[in-house]
Fold:
Amino acid sequence: MTRPRKAGSGAAARARWTANDVSGKPTYLEDDRRGIDRTAKIRKLVRDNPKHGATAKRFKFYTDGMAVGDYVAAVVAAGFSEATALDDVLLDISRGFITLQREQEAAWTVPDAKARLSEILRLAREGKPQTIGAQDPCVVVSADDYERLRPRRHLGQFLLETAPRGADIELPSRADHRGDPFAEQ
Structure:
């Protein structure tokens, strides 16, 4: 499997803000775009769409297991340029949203994964996500990558989302002296 590029290395480090581009979109060098294997399979590493705006619309074109060439064709058919599609692929790899898997790097079968678990864990710790299974595949990533990819929820947002609706909750009067709940009785 190809290793997801981390920000600050490889193509992500060479991404530059174009001086004449007022949109502020990162643009990759032509060499980076040419280096993408169009037959490689796209593996999504995130369940939900992490993007916003036009990039979110293009992210919806990703299907787990589709070839990069098929993604590029779908984006071009939607009216975007081929360079934009390839920039998306490079950026999404660098942010850990997807990874590319070459044909010869097929997913591990479950029996092989059981027999070679230590190798799978070693590769995942090296930053190379490992896919197990064909029917309902799972991806093994390192704990550091998982923490980086896991969405953070604010406590306030969690409380608003999980608060009971329509329940009559009787709150104590603020005028009452409630005492110290931690004092010994």
Summary: The mean pLDDT is 79.
